[in-house]
Amino acid sequence: MEGTGSYGAALTRYLRRYDITVVEVNRPDRAARRRHGKTDAIDATAAAHAVLSARATTTAKTGDGPVEMLRMFKLARTSAVKSRTQAMNQLKAVIVGAD
């Protein structure tokens, strides 16, 4: 699988649930992709060649454990800080704009 972030992470978890081995493939070089044109078929073929030639042997991350837990905590904190900042900015705007 090319890129196991966001959509790929959910698909990886689903496949692992059914004991299907998922191999992570690095994205191709962007410059090389632009020279030859970017298509999903070309990307899929390149990923398959990388796995078959044993250049791609990295097992995809499981998406659980302490690292994932910490990522979720950081995501929640970032969201809370953003909401707090937004609320403070709205309150200032009301105070400044009030008669």
TrEMBL record:
Any GO BP: DNA transposition
Pfam families reported in the protein's UniProt record: DEDD_Tnp_IS110 (PF01548)
Domain named Transposase IS110-like N-terminal: residues: 1-95
Superkingdom of this protein's organism: Bacteria
One annotated GO molecular function: transposase activity
Protein name: Transposase IS110-like N-terminal domain-containing protein
Species classification: Bacteria, Bacillati, Actinomycetota, Actinomycetes, Micromonosporales
